[in-house]
Design goal:
269 residues; 40% helix; globular
Length: 269
């Protein structure tokens, strides 16, 4: 069985280590050059391939997005994040956290963390989107901050589009958050008032990336650094006995080269 991965050409450069890993594991990685050559275009190409060869292929989506049953399937696979977090925090602190924080692109890691805590009304939850260079057209990927309700790639959700319904360009220092839409369950939870959504800019995420690396010796993924940035922002406003649980959705190995270019001006310093 052949495994084919469609990936935006821009993201392949930004995620070179992940591309190499996939190739070692036997996958064929196909660069997508259309449009922005990032995640949205890669999903488009994967869907085209699937519907063209539906009898001999199966479509696999890694985020909580798309047509049913994909958002539900991915949420149920990722809920282990929240289940393990819940068990470990009760073992360690003998109570639940006051605040959960996770980055949100499509939203798989966040929905996985949040889902097992949804019935715990005293646990606040904040999903952190990519604020990029600020909430202005084409320079961010914060759908709840600058987006609207619409339909894209098989589901109705909040997305970034102009007044004519055309999908806007996006930007984020993080390849994993650089996406024009958000998983539909996040839209539901936001409208229901159960989960709050904020954003962190590129600069805030990079500063959090540096801070966590220096203070804890943990190099987070640039996606995860958006959640860390939010925690750094809100922690001083909370009491010392309150607990913030931040989900680190990935390691920063894949992002070190790109982060070095932003932080130090050139690679290898």
């Amino acid at each position: 069985m052949e495994c084919v991965v469609y990936m935006g050409e821009v993201d392949m450069k930004r995620q070179a280590l992940n591309v190499t890993r996939m190739k070692f594991l036997g996958a064929k990685v196909v660069p997508v050059t259309a449009g922005q050559a990032t995640l949205k275009e890669a999903v488009n190409e994967a869907m085209r391939d699937w519907v063209t060869n539906v009898r001999s292929t199966h479509y696999i989506l890694g985020t909580a997005y798309g047509a049913h049953p994909y958002p539900m399937m991915v949420r149920n696979f990722h809920r282990v994040i929240g289940e393990e977090s819940r068990r470990q925090i009760l073992e360690r602190e003998e109570r639940l956290p006051d605040l959960l924080v996770a980055c949100v692109g499509g939203g798989s890691n966040a929905i996985g963390l949040f889902y097992p805590f949804l019935e715990d009304k005293n646990v606040r939850m904040v999903g952190v989107e990519a604020g990029g260079e600020g909430i202005k057209p084409g320079r961010h990927a914060a759908r709840f901050q600058g987006g609207k309700l619409g339909v894209l790639q098989g589901c109705k959700t909040f997305l970034l589009a102009n007044n004519d319904g055309q999908i806007e360009l996006t930007h984020s220092v993080s390849a994993g958050l650089d996406y024009a839409a958000v998983g539909p369950e996040h839209s539901f939870l936001r409208d229901a008032g159960r989960v709050e959504y904020d954003f962190a800019t590129d600069d805030e995420a990079l500063e959090a990336f540096k801070t966590l690396s220096k203070v804890e010796g943990i190099i987070p993924a640039l996606e995860s650094a958006h959640g860390v940035a939010h925690a750094i922002k809100v922690a001083p406003k909370m009491s010392r006995d309150q607990i913030i649980l931040v989900n680190l959705s990935g390691r920063g190995d894949k992002d070190v080269q790109q982060a070095a270019e932003f932080v130090f001006g050139r690679v290898g310093i």
